[in-house]
Amino acid sequence: MDVRRHLGGALRGAALGLVAGALWFTIEAVAGWAAGSFLPAGVIQKLALLDLGLGAAAGLLVGLALPGLRGGALALGIAAFYGLLRVYAPPGYGAEAVYVVAAVAACAAGIRLLGSGAGGLLGFVHVSLLATAALVILEIGSQEVRAALRGMRLPLVVAAVPVLAVLVDRLLAFGLRSRAARLGVELTAGLVAAFVLGRPLTTTPLEQTLVTAVPPPAGTPDVFLVSFDTTRADHLSLYGYERETSPRLTEFAKDALVFTQARSTAGWTLPGHASMLTGLYPNKHGAHLAGGWLGGQSIDGRRNVAYPLKPDKTTVTELLRDRGYSTGAFIANFSYLYRDFGLSQGFQHYDDAPGLLLRFEPAAIRFARRFAPGFCLKPFRSARQINAAALEWLDVAPKGRPAFMFLNYMEPHQPWLAPAPHDKWVWGLPEAHELAQRNLYTHEVKDFTADEIGFITANYDGQVAAMDEAFAELIEALRARGRLDNALIIVTSDHGELLGDHGQVGHMGRMLYEGLLHIPMIVRFPGADRPMGTTDRHVQNLDVTPTVLEIAGVPVPEDVQGRDVRTVERPSFAEEDINPFLVAEYGEFYDRATRVLFEGSWKLITTSRGEKKLFDLARDPGETRDLGAEEPDRLAAMSRRLEAAMPTRVAAANPDQQVN
Question: What is the pTM of this model?
Answer without folding.
Answer: 0.93
